[in-house]
Amino acid sequence: MQALIFDVDGTLADTETVHLQAFNAAFAEVGLDWFWDEALYTRLLKVAGGKERLLHYWHVADLDEADGASVNDAVHAIKTRHYAARVRDGGLPFRPGIARLIAEAEAAAIPVAIATTTTPADLDALLQTPFGPAWRTRFAAICDAGTNHMKKPSPDVYLDVLRQLGLKSADCIAFEDSANGLRAARAAGVPTVVTTTAYTSQDNFDGALAVLPHLGEPHALIPSSVPDEQPGWVDLATLRHWHLHALTEVA
Ligand code: XBP
Ligand code: MG
């Protein structure tokens, strides 16, 4: 196991409720009488990429898509401003186990990377507080909506991260929260651990190495789903064990 590749939204942090709030704040600011509730947003999340999701909604709302395309980017830029304002200054904590696992990887000289469909601005707002202004130096590769236009489930962001790392997909482990993300990582051949969120818990995760509620902490154990299996947390030793098992399964 040579590298860990992290998705961002729903994986590093449970961000989608803040994205939803930011979309609704943008609609109010531009005078659109739309309000996306969590049930609708859960369905809309099947479309990866905020711009693509918004354009899809113009169509669903039976509006002339031509109108949608012209104002879409402007509304999405306003949404991004609202999202950044909400998460800047550490407004959103990492999910259990994320900071611990990244620190473990760094201590073991295992590179960590980011493969996301969100924007560089969202990344900056989310990561500059926990990792400081030089947060980008903590990641050996970062692919996002600024580097890759094809969104998940396209494998593009993962293929570009692997190219930048100079590693084979089978030598890495990806962390994802959604079916789109799992499909993207699997299409790139990367063994993938899924940590679900309220928005994605009903997704299909066939092909995942493991599907967990979160990565756990010594003080916040992962409840065991199997009788007499020890509850615990995912550390590098666990990942190495799962990774070796995945390699032997493929062999
Ligand atoms: C999840 C997404 C993103 C976010 C919204 O990204 O699909 O589009 O929902 O962010 P990830 P943007 O691959 O990190 O799970 O509006 O910036 O797209
Ligand atoms: Mg995600």
Which band does the percent of strand residues land in?
5-15%
The overall number of domains is 2
Might you state the CATH topology name of the largest domain?
A: Rossmann fold
From the alpha carbons, calculate the radius of gyration and give it in angstroms: 18 Å
Ranges with pLDDT <50 over ≥5 residues? none
- Number of continuous helical runs: 9
Instruction: Let me know the CATH homologous superfamily of the largest domain.
Output: HAD superfamily/HAD-like
The CATH architecture classification of the largest domain is 3-Layer(aba) Sandwich
Distance between the termini: 16 Å
Indicate the mean pLDDT: 93
Bound molecules: xylulose-1,5-bisphosphate, magnesium ion
What form results from the Cα inertia axes? globular
Give the topology string: H per helix, E per strand. Answer: EHHHHHEHEHEHEEH
Q: Give the biggest beta sheet.
A: 6 strands, parallel
**Regarding CATH, which class of the largest domain?**
Alpha Beta
Features:
251 residues, alpha/beta, Rossmann fold, DNA polymerase, domain 1, 2 domains, six-stranded parallel beta sheet, 9 helices, binds xylulose-1,5-bisphosphate, binds magnesium ion
Any overview of this molecule?
With 251 residues, the chain is an alpha/beta fold. It has 2 domains: 3-14 and 93-250, HAD superfamily/HAD-like (Rossmann fold); 16-90, Putative phosphatase, domain 2 (DNA polymerase, domain 1). The protein is built from 9 helices and 6 strands, in the order E-H-H-H-H-H-E-H-E-H-E-H-E-E-H. The chain has helices at 16-30, 38-44, 50-60, 65-87, 98-107, 120-131, 156-165, 179-187, 236-250; strands at 3-6, 112-115, 141-143, 172-176, 192-195, 210-212. It has a 6-stranded parallel sheet with strand order 3-2-1-4-5-6. Helix 6 (120-131) links the parallel strand 2 and strand 3. The radius of gyration is 18 Å and the shape is globular. Bound molecules: xylulose-1,5-bisphosphate and magnesium ion. Residues 7, 9-11, 177-178, 181 line the site of magnesium ion. Pfam families: Hydrolase (PF00702).
